[in-house]
Amino acid sequence: MEEITRSGSAAPLSSYTEAVDWINSLIPFGIRPGLERIELLMEKLGHPHRKLKFIHVAGTNGKGSTCAFLTRVLIQSGYTVGTFTSPYITKFTNRFQYNGIDIPEETLLELVNKLRPLVQEIAGGELGSPTMFEVSTALAILYYGEVCYPDVVVWETGLGGRLDVTNIVTPVVSVITNVGHDHTDVLGDTLELIAGEKAGIIKPGVPAVSCVSQPEAIAVLKAKAASTRSTLYLAGEDFSYSGVELRDGYQHFTFQGPFRSLELDIAMKGEHQLENAAGAMMVLEVLRQYMAFMLEDEDVLEGFRGTFWAGRLEEVGTSPRIILDGAHNPEGAESLAKSLPQFGPYGKLNLLMGMLANKHHESYLKHILPIVDTLILTEPDFRKKMDAEDLQAIAESLRNKYAKENLEIIVERNWGQALHLLQTITADDDLAVVSGTLYLISDVRSTLLRQPDSEKGW
């Protein structure tokens, strides 16, 4: 029970750990689409979000990488940048960054103590308690709007767009990376429905950039842009990339946009990162062309070259070679399968995966089974984990049609034991991959990189 002061409200929290524990205690309230609670919270705080310039980023895959490109280039160009992303890979503070540095623990504690009485007040009313993500979003707005005042905030949606809590802001540019089958239990089970939810971040008169490729999803975005009189810059129509080649470990390509062309290099691997980089470049071109952002070519090139995003085709071991990739839906699995040849020749491919229970595992496995020699199925340390034996049953049902002839499937529920097994069976000339939910990637990454203070969560 929380200690109650004479005024009737809970006593202030006294440590960072207590603050994070309190935020996480709101997880049982779940994901509750809608803006009523965050609007009331912002009203009580004096609408600090209205002081800030946002780049709002939605999409099924590639949001984090796109945010990383934008953040790095803008910082390189001399701008101060806030970056709000989720989930986090290492520590709760990762989701609130200023110029690439996490929010200080003491600042987070101070802001939580400002928020908590208001959250408790709202919880006692007809709207019910704000959720963990709503409080995290409010915390980010307070940090950027009242503490560090960045020139621009790179602002990632949590889930969907239209009813996502982050949609309380009016951005200077909206970005929809792509549309695929994820969170269909909340967003709908067709691409049109999912695209409609993502398109909800497009605001009247605010330009939008998208790499969406499916005709039915494009039609939804174009209709939304027309109804809001927003200019839509669409990959394949208004901008594109070409001339892709590998040079000294970088993916080299030419960006072609409505205003100019530019040759870029990115260190991040995977063809899908070229698409993310091109989308980010189009956003930067909109900022440069229409909003007087000073972006020198030298800084833009250096920013793209220097961008890194943990847990996305990240090589973390050399003996054996281990690749971490948070691909957790069919489109992510397809990108992973296409990207592995960029890591050079290898013998066997051994893949460890763990999933949450609400994903499209059959479609995911159709992309993975044809390329792996050994598949180790485990369970992430998270409440919504998928049972490893249920995952095995799906894999076995697909074996005859999709798998390599001698595919070995191993079930090891304990992810730590599964990781040890992966390391043991992978020879120096083989390649090991850990994929699936970022909750698994987080734990594996902290173990391999020996980060004892690692936290994880949505």
In short:
The chain is of the alpha/beta class and 458 residues long.
Topology (SSEs and partners):
Blueprint: H1 16-24, H2 36-45, E1 54-58, H3 63-76, E2 81-84, E3 96-98, E4 101-102, H4 105-123, H5 132-148, E5 152-156, E6 173-176, H6 184-187, H7 191-198, E7 208-210, H8 215-228, E8 232-234, E9 240-247, E10 250-256, E11 261-266, H9 271-290, H10 297-305, E12 314-318, E13 321-325, H11 330-339, E14 349-354, H12 361-368, E15 374-379, H13 388-402, E16 408-414, H14 415-425, E17 431-436, H15 438-448
Parallel strand pairs: 1-5, 1-6, 2-5, 6-7, 7-8, 13-17, 14-15, 14-17, 15-16
Antiparallel strand pairs: 2-3, 3-4, 9-10, 10-11, 12-13
Helix pairs in contact: 1-4, 2-5, 3-9, 3-10, 4-5, 7-8, 11-12, 12-13
Write a structural description.
Residues 311-437 form the Mur ligase C-terminal domain. Residues 57-283 form the Mur ligase central domain. Pfam families: Mur_ligase_C, Mur_ligase_M. Its EC number is 6.3.2.17. The protein has 458 residues and is α/β, with parallel strands linked by helices. The chain has 15 helices and 17 strands. Strands 4-3-2-5-1-6-7-8 form an eight-stranded mixed beta sheet, with helices on both faces. Strand 10 (250-256) and strand 11 (261-266) form a beta hairpin. Helix 3 packs across helix 10 and helix 12 (361-368) packs across helix 13. The protein is globular. The chain starts with 15 loop residues before the first helix and ends in a 10-residue tail after the last helix.
